[in-house]
From TrEMBL:
Lineage, top ranks: Bacteria, Pseudomonadati, Myxococcota, Myxococcia, Myxococcales
Keywords: ATP-binding, Kinase, Nucleotide-binding, Serine/threonine-protein kinase, Transferase
Residue stretches making up the Protein kinase domain: 24-286
Species the sequence originates in: Archangium gephyra
Protein name: Serine/threonine protein kinase
PROSITE patterns named in the record: PROTEIN_KINASE_DOM, PROTEIN_KINASE_ST
Keyword ATP-binding included in the entry's annotation: yes
Length: 1325
């Protein structure tokens, strides 16, 4: 038993300095064990430290005998790797003692908890332990308790391991030293040999080999081979379960080690290495052939031997005779044998296996070859009740789960669940019933009395009488019943959409198996009979391709056009063009087809298509263009007939599909478009706010009892007894799929089920199928819900040859398990689909864990050969197949694909997966660069810098991605404000780099972003230089490249707004930039320019128009999840609202501020000369304005000073902050301080050139402060400068009405002119 197990202890520790046996002086307590304590002591006869073990006097005679035996055995063993014996004795007064050498270091258990061993360290330690055991085995001594805590690493060095604790050691051949037959459990759960776990009389040296094999396995994998949540469950696993193969847990280990571990962990001691001498011989042989200890390359098995290690539904019954916490002794062994034999007799007819464990517990497993899952569990429940009745004090646990079937007991999740229940029950009072898990309880029908006992467990108390059942045969098709109301609603929506054209969306939600697919099938069947049938676009989700961008929409268009992957690219282009262009004007067709080609993964050449070329260089632009093309195509189709878009299993879709459908519904709001989506209820969690303003939800409830009874009678025929009908209806509980399963199983026995255990029912049904058909289903399930005949043949190898596979598939179609699809993803392969997703899940659950990785490797390789275009699908299979290098490659490719489609969240996810799979080298730099760009687009500036900065060094300078990343790193660094030197370095690097020819647009974008940052710093000359650089680089492309032209004009509008007295020209250029971006469909950049134009409009006094534009931009950005544009719009809108004279606008601004500037981060910024923050500083400036308007002057001043400090290096916004602070100080009557603040702002303004948007307000603030301070001369000088700025800016406005609005509606303009009139009269104005 583990020395750390709870046991009786001595009342207290011995005092320091006490001398034992006149020789050993105690120094300190080193530890306590089950039988006593261990002290560090000084051997006064030698002056050397020793470990002194003292036995508690209160221990049992058995423990006393073991203590003496350990001392006697240890005294006869001499080996450097065995702890050295010093002395032992039994004094007349005091405790028995055993003195051993003192060791400095740590035991292996502690070392493994902190860090793993290397392969070389593991092998060195294994050899040394084997040498130590050889010394013991040659003397006939078996240790019997080898485990990591009994292997001590001297000095922490594995190569100097020392074997400890011979307290359980004994001679292999019974002698006078042997322990009598009390059937004590000796050893530690998880490391015992099978002969110990079954309490055999003789324990051979081979038991130590098994225990050492467990230690070796743990060192190699980091996990014990027989870990279990309870002592009894661990014993069961040791006896009957095989550990997961090394290659599954840690791929790449030398193949020689798997052979060695297999020989050490053989259940049968006759097949195991017999002793340590044999182990040393094997180790020597391995070391003599170095290739056997080299890491092996990954090997792909030619086929899956699914039937050799198939999983089946297993019920496990554990009967614990007593709590192990009460002591070491087990219950009466003969009584346990009697009960074991009785249970074997009772269950043998049902294929059950029963064993007695070393602790006296009984374990039984039931895997019947016939009958249903409910039959299996009912049988196990009856056995459990019988044992509880005969042995009320026993703890009886019953669980159901999957287990691998081999020559011994099936083990797996069921025995682990049983162990967990036993562990839980030890903390509770004795139970009066049988404790069961949720699955078992769900499989038991009304014939048993159950009650919930908490924590997901149920209590089985008794069996009740139930009516007899008849066994009618199946054979009639299943009609659609009980869905008249839902079908009527769908039909009404369809008719309304035709008669009063308007886009409609319906979402049918229900848990798996309730009948969504059947409803869809019936509705489409009715649509086919319409006088004018709709154009149906059907897309189905699949769990293996969950999240693949545009998966459902691309699939529906490919199906409509008859496109298959097996055709060459030109043929697919032709098919797509001929069908898409059918209703479109000739001038529009090519453009629409090109972008729908991107949606369908059918790329068209970009030569002659500037829009396509621009979009491929900008993912978000591509997303916008695809949406525009889809809307155009559907609008043309709507002119001829209603378009019905059916999206089945939407919960397996992606965010871009959802967003694109939302755009369709919005843009075609007055067209005959109907969207019918079907999904599980979790779809609303996966896609919050799904089409919220246009969606009608249709929750699909369970079948009514009347509908269920009708279904049973129509399928089974009128002869079925009413009792059978009612029982099936009751057990189905309204679940349509369950009811179908129950109808199919009526002829086999009772069909009892609860919805939460549907997988168990389906798995039970699958295990009763003909072996060949089951093998096909298991192989097919590895693909996902959709699979191909050739792919299944690939997995099955020789089992898939000839006509057998075709026959199995035909039979499965007839049995309504799978269905053929009319249009295959691969033109040369027949495609099939599981009719129900849960059937696929059930089949996949039966594939053993040890076979799944091989299966996914084979599937990935087959799909790759077939030309699968979705990199994410391939990556998923290779990752599940533990081919991490291939997985990393395809996750990287998927990252690129998703980035091109502007699917930002999925891009980040795939990039992280690629890195987790070990992506390295140049691809790793590229993927991290994409992550950095996307992080900023998601407005995660810190993350953008953290990821993107290091990635830049691995990119080629001047390449498109390098340019794009540099631009966004510059603006991210400026946003963060703590990387001024790095921003400067990147700026210089960008300006002296010549872009590659294909990177011109990306370079101009980066330069424009740099220019925006330069404007913040107020560097007028540098801004002009950047504009010149852009015009130089884009000299050849500017006329025909709207994207480059748009970025150039964006920067120019900024320059005119911040540096020049030309607000009208700034607005005109901003509108031109907006048109440029709109020309190529770049909605993100259109939003940006909408914000810029709104900002400029506000400076012109057109406040209503400005707010309308800004609110619209903010709403659009939030709706389309354009995070960066949303943040920009929110910032500008807040500033406009804060500067408005209307109190209602101030309230709105105050509500926006918390999202812009979390207060918890502020103190981090307010430190150091070079620290600044664009967003935080502006936030405090706006907050100061709002506090001023409310009259809260002290708080306003604090915020104003914080804004000035945060914006100090950013001259442009520093002017704004000083204007606000001066006004606040003036309102407090502190004219001199107000004047000082205003002077600081004016100096910054003059440094910038003195004519930009903040010029009037800044000079006005100085004038008013000077007047209040009594310096009229200085005040008038400042006022004249303010008037000059107003006049200069007004001269730029050509329209009289707009110019008048500018003079009267802009507060600082009106105040300046008013003061001038007061000072100099009307003529001065």
């Amino acid at each position: 038993m583990d020395k750390n197990e709870p046991a009786k202890r001595s009342p207290g520790a011995h005092p320091r300095g006490r001398v034992i046996a006149g020789r050993f002086k105690l120094e300190e307590l080193a530890g306590r064990g089950g039988m006593g304590s261990v002290y560090r002591a000084m051997d006064t006869s030698t002056g050397m430290p020793v470990a002194l073990k003292l036995l508690d006097r209160a221990t049992s005679p058995e423990a006393f005998y073991r203590f003496n035996r350990e001392a006697a055995l240890l005294a006869g063993l001499r080996h450097p790797a065995i702890v050295s014996y010093v002395a032992h004795g039994i004094p007349e007064v005091g405790e028995p003692y055993l003195a051993m050498e003192w060791l400095d270091g740590e035991d292996l258990a502690r070392h493994l908890a902190r860090q793993p061993l290397s392969l070389q360290e593991t092998l060195g330690m294994l050899r040394r332990v084997a040498e130590a055991l050889t010394a013991a085995h040659r003397q006939g001594i078996v240790h019997r308790d080898l485990k990591p805590s009994n292997l001590f690493l001297r000095g922490g060095r594995p190569e100097e391991v020392v074997v400890l604790d011979f307290g359980l050691a004994r001679h292999a051949v019974p002698t006078l030293m042997g322990v009598t037959g009390s059937h004590t459990v000796v050893g530690t759960p998880g490391y015992m040999a099978p002969e110990q776990a079954s309490s055999q009389q003789e324990i051979p040296p081979a038991a130590d080999i098994f225990s050492l094999g467990c230690v070796l396995y743990e060192c190699l994998t980091g996990k014990p081979p027989f870990a279990a949540p309870h002592f009894t469950a661990a014993l069961a696993k040791i006896l009957f379960a095989e550990p997961v193969a090394l290659e599954k847990v840690r791929p790449g280990l030398p193949m020689g080690l798997q052979v060695l571990v297999d020989r050490m962990l053989a259940k049968d001691s006759q097949r195991r290495l017999p002793d340590a001498d044999s182990l040393l011989v094997v180790l020597a042989a391995l070391e003599s052939v170095p290739e056997l200890l080299l890491p092996r390359a990954e090997l792909v098995q030619p086929s899956l031997a699914l039937m050799e290690a198939e999983q089946k539904l297993v019920s496990v019954l554990l009967v614990s005779l007593q709590s192990m916490a009460q002591g070491e002794e087990t219950a009466d062994w003969d009584q346990g044998l009697t009960l074991r034999d009785a249970l074997r007799t009772e269950l043998s007819a049902y294929g059950a296996q029963v064993e007695l464990l070393a602790d006296g517990s009984l374990v039984a497993t039931l895997v019947p070859e016939r009958g249903t899952a409910t039959d299996q569990v009912a049988l196990a429940a009856r056995c459990a009740l019988t044992f509880k009745e005969r042995w009320p004090e026993a703890t009886v646990v019953l669980t159901t789960g999957l287990g691998v079937v081999n020559e011994r007991l099936p083990m797996g999740e069921a025995v682990d669940k049983a162990g967990q229940l036993l562990r839980h029950l030890e903390l509770l009072p004795s139970s009066s019933g049988v404790v069961m898990d949720k699955v078992t309880a769900g499989l038991l029908g009304p014939g048993f009395q159950l009650s919930r006992s908490g924590s997901g467990t149920f209590l089985l108390r008794s069996e009740q009488l139930s009516a007899d059942e008849s066994r009618p045969l199946l054979g009639r098709p299943t009609p659609c019943v009980g869905r008249e109301q839902e079908l009527a609603l769908l039909d009404f929506s369809f008719t309304s959409c035709v008669e009063e054209p308007a886009a409609r969306a319906l979402l049918v939600t229900a848990p798996a198996g309730v009948g969504k697919s059947r409803l869809r099938h019936e509705f489409l069947r009715r649509m086919e009979r319409k006088e004018q049938p709709p154009l149906v676009l059907l897309g189905r989700g699949d769990p293996m391709s969950t999240g693949a961008s545009y998966g459902l929409l691309g699939q529906s268009l490919r199906r409509l056009c008859g496109v298959t992957d097996g055709e060459n690219l030109e043929a697919r282009r032709t098919r797509l063009y001929e069908r898409v262009a059918l209703r479109l004007p000739a001038a529009q067709a090519q453009d629409v087809v090109e972008f729908l080609g991107e949606l369908c993964a059918i790329p068209f050449p970009e030569e002659g298509s500037p829009r396509l070329r621009a979009a491929r260089n900008d993912p978000r632009l591509m997303s916008a263009q695809v949406g525009r093309a889809l809307v155009a195509f559907l609008k043309a189709e709507c002119a001829h007939r209603l378009v019905l878009l059916v999206l089945e299993d939407l919960h397996w879709s992606d965010a871009l599909t959802v967003k694109l459908v939302d755009e369709v519904l919005r843009e075609l709001a007055e067209q005959p478009v109907m969207v019918l989506a079907l999904a599980r209820p979790e779809v609303k969690t996966l896609f919050p706010g799904l089409w919220s303003r246009r969606l009608q939800e249709v929750p699909l409830h369970g079948l009514s009892r009347k509908a269920g009874a009708r279904l049973v009678r129509e399928v089974l025929g009128p002869q079925v007894p009413e009792a059978v009908v009612q029982k099936a209806v009751e057990q189905a509980d309204g679940n349509a799929l369950f009811l179908e399963e129950l109808i199919r199983m009526v002829d086999e026995g009772r069909a009892e089920e609860a919805p939460e255990t549907i997988l168990a029912v389906l798995q039970s049904r699958l295990t009763r199928m003909e072996a060949g058909e089951r093998r096909v289903l298991l192989a097919a399930s590895i693909f996902g819900r959709t699979f191909w005949r050739g792919g299944v043949r690939e997995l099955l190898g020789e089992h898939g040859e000839g006509d057998a596979l075709s026959e199995h598939l035909r039979q499965l179609v007839e049995q309504e398990v799978i269905e053929p699809l009319p249009d295959s993803h691969f033109s040369t392969e027949a495609e099939y689909r599981f009719r129900h997703a849960l059937v696929r899940d059930a089949a996949y659950g039966l594939v053993p864990d040890s076979h799944r990785s091989t299966g996914h490797r084979l599937v990935g390789a087959w799909l790759e050969r077939m030309g699968e275009s979705d990199a994410r699908v391939l990556a998923t299979h290779y990752e599940l197949g533990q081919q991490l290098e291939r997985a990393a490659h395809y996750y990287a490719r998927a990252t690129e694909q998703l980035f091109e489609r502007s699917d930002l969240q999925a891009t980040m996810w795939c990039a992280e997966k690629a890195q987790a799979c070990g992506l390295s080298g140049e691809p790793s730099f590229r993927i991290r660069a994409l992550q950095g760009v996307v992080a900023f687009w998601l407005y995660q500036t810190s993350k953008a810098l953290e990821i993107g900065g290091p990635a830049l060094t691995g990119l080629e300078a001047g390449s498109p991605l390098w340019c794009r990343l540099v631009g966004w790193l510059i603006i991210a660094g400026a946003h963060e404000g703590r990387q001024h030197d790095e921003v400067s370095r990147l700026s210089e690097l960008l300006l002296r780099t010549h872009p590659a020819p294909e990177a011109t647009a990306a370079y101009i974008e980066a330069a424009a972003l740099l220019g925006m940052v330069v404007h913040w710093f107020g560097a007028r000359q540098k801004s002009e230089a950047i504009l010149e650089r852009i015009l130089e680089v884009g000299a050849e492309s500017m006329n025909h490249d709207a994207l480059s032209r748009g970025w150039m004009r964006l920067l120019k509008s900024y320059f005119l707004y911040f540096f020049e007295a030309q607000p009208w020209q700034a607005l005109r250029v901003a509108e031109q930039a907006r048109q440029d971006f709109n020309e190529i469909g770049s909605k993100r950049d259109v939003l940006t320019m909408q914000v810029v134009s709104g900002m400029i409009l506000a400076s012109l006094g057109e406040l209503p128009g400005a707010m309308e534009r800004l609110r619209d931009a903010l709403n659009t950005a939030q709706r389309t999840e354009s995070h960066l544009a949303a943040a920009y719009a929110q910032n500008v809108l807040c500033g406009v609202l804060a500067g408005s004279p209307e109190p209602v606008h101030h309230q709105e601004a105050h509500s926006l501020l918390p999202e812009l500037m979390p207060h918890t981060q502020v103190l981090e910024w307010v430190s150091g000369e070079n620290c600044y923050s664009y967003s935080q500083g502006l936030g405090y400036a706006m907050l100061a304005q709002l506090m001023l308007s409310k009259g809260e002057l002290l708080e306003a001043e604090a915020h104003g000073r914080t804004a000035c400090q945060l914006l100090k290096p950013l001259l442009t916004y520093s002017i704004l902050a000083h204007t606000v602070l001066s006004s606040i100080l003036l309102a407090q009557g502190r004219a001199a301080e107000a004047r000082q603040a205003a002077m600081s702002g004016v100096r910054a303004l003059e440094q910038m050139g003195g004519a930009g948007v903040y010029s009037v307000a800044m000079h006005l603030a100085l004038a008013e402060a000077c007047f209040a301070d009594g310096d009229a001369r200085a005040g008038e000088a400042a006022l004249r400068r303010a008037v000059e700025c107003v006049r200069a800016r007004a001269r730029d406005i050509p329209e009289a009405e707009a110019r008048e609005r500018f003079l009267r509606q802009v507060p600082e303009n009106a105040r300046t002119l008013e003061l001038a009139r007061q000072r100099w009269g009307e003529a001065a104005v």
